[in-house]
Amino acid sequence: MKVIAKVLDVSTRGYRKDGEPKTAADLVLKSGTSTIQVTLFDKDVGEGRHLIFDKLTGQEVVVDISAEVYRGNVNYRLGFEDPTPLTQPTPVKTKAA
Q1: pTM of the full predicted structure?
Q2: In this predicted model, what pLDDT tens digit does every residue of 54-88 receive, in sequence order?
Q3: Closest Cα partner for 64 from 49, 45, 84?
């Protein structure tokens, strides 16, 4: 589902899988009164997907997200579409000479 959310924070961290070092990125989004944390794992971080969100920190975006319950916990997954800023920055007009 498409959700309007504000990107609050993007941080990276290291973890190990099968003894190999990997990198994950934690995204913190706020939609309405809910704060949503989504983790992007090594493949997505390697593709630079977290950098898209990092550039949008502090902005409201439309993001494709789904929720699933796993072992009694709610987990969030991002869709394949990149986030879209809710408002585009206004270009600065300059006077022609």
Answers
A1: 0.79
A2: 999 999 999 999 888 988 888 888 888 888 888 76
A3: 84
